[in-house]
Amino acid sequence: MRVYPRPLARLIEELEKLPGIGPKTAQRLALYLLQASHEDAAALSDAILKVKELIRTCPICFSLTDDERCAVCADPARDERLLCVVADIRDLLAMERASGYRGRYHVLQGLISPMDGIGPDSLRVRELLERVGAGGIAEVIIATSPTVEGEATASYLADTLKSMPVKVSRIALGLPVGGELDYADDVTITRALEGRREM
User: Fold this and answer.
1) How many domains in the chain?
2) pLDDT of 39-92, one tens digit each?
3) Given CA atoms 147, 152, 154, 155 in this order, what sign does their dihedral have?
4) What domain range includes position 145?
5) 15 CB contacts (<8 Å, ≥6 apart)?
6) Residue 133 covered by a domain
7) Which residue, 134, 76, 70, is CA-closest to 105?
8) CA–CA distance, 84 with 167 (Å, rounded to integer)
9) Helices (H), 20-147
10) 189 partner at 20 to 30 Å CA-CA among 69, 70, 127, 160?
11) What mean pLDDT is reported for the chain?
12) Among 36, 44, 34, 42, which residue's Cα sits nearest to residue 12?
């Protein structure tokens, strides 16, 4: 027996396809949208379509933009000598949210993952090497997550950049602020010790 009218059932099905949205959340969102004004529903629909139509990849750093260049690449106040390499836009946004970095970025658009058939040629590694090779960059900061894929990517990039006249560094990995030492795993404690600094 069909519980929902067909259009509502379809909306719930489509919402369930979104990451982090389960059946109950999809139902709640669909029912909210059903109760929303026609104008609000149209505005949401238009916003989704505009994102699909207008957002593209920045030709310099491979972040997202709706202009010729992304806001970071277009910002003359950014330090062009620093280049932070991240896996994707979410990592770039996390770095920006922290407000401690004022250099440029390079978005790899993924991580090396042989199990998934993703090698260096599937990422924006060639473009990274071209940017570094063009000169003007003093340091490349590798800011990939401390996952197996993130570590493999960081090691590959460090080895590849070794022959170039640029300093290559890796973001420090270790204990989070407010974290308890006795809850940390062995690898995290080891990384924290390796990344220690003088006080």
Assistant:
1) 1
2) 999 999 999 999 999 999 999 999 999 999 999 999 999 999 999 999 999 999
3) positive
4) 78-172
5) 21, 25, 26, 29, 30
6) yes
7) 70
8) 12
9) 23-35, 38-54, 71-74, 89-98, 125-133
10) 160
11) 92
12) 34
